[in-house]
Amino acid sequence: MTLEQRLERATELARQAGERMVQAREEQGFAHHYKKGDELVTDIDVAIDTFLAEALEAEFPEDARLTEELSPERDVIGTKGGLWVIDPIDGTVNFAHGLRHVAVSIAWCERGKIQMGVVHAPFLGETFTAIRGKGAWLNGESISVSETDEMSRALVATGFPYNRDSRPPLLKRLSAMLLVCQDVRRNGSAALDLCDVACGRLDAYYESVSPWDFAAGLLIAREAGARTGHLYRCPDGIPDELYGENIVVASPALHAPLKRLLEEADASSGLPGL
User: Is 43 labelled as part of a ligand binding site?
Assistant: First the structure.
């Protein structure tokens, strides 16, 4: 099967998942609880994850899966075969609160490299797609990153962990950013933040997230012309493209100054290598 065919099928599944999300929102037909202390999850997260898992198992039984709710075990990251990386609802808190910044994220990887990805935002009517080496698209139209080349003109997105104890060290980064850039956005969906960088709505993004949050969006941003990488060296044994700690993504001219600004903020906090 070609990457184009895989992307077509993944996009179809993402849209079907989005329809389930919209229906649940309209009918208010979902319950929620908390996992790992403060991390909210709804039964629609689980239902969509189940729907996608069953469809992929039926059509691609040879592939492994890494998904937020049903298959979060990260030992599959190093698989040499195909790997689906899925977030059934990226932006669960937004979804539960009636906000629109919500997406289904599906990526397919081979030997640790992201080959194709789709991020579908059903409440926004937007579907972002990309194929490695072939470009990125929004609703079928080619997209590219902004040409912003000064941090003072940059609109930057980030996010914060659910664990409140992990937040204070990140305030140094946020403070440094607010003193230099145009402004900061915290939209609640890593996948859509990356897609907004891809189409030039945002100029840069940094955060530490899980593989299912960023895999598809990272490829989309890169294929749209963004520079992608990490603030610090990735550990051995984990593919760089699936390592979610300290991701830095920006239009080409901003990547180096953004990285330098974050490194300086970490050094001033006395906690380098957060």
Answer: no
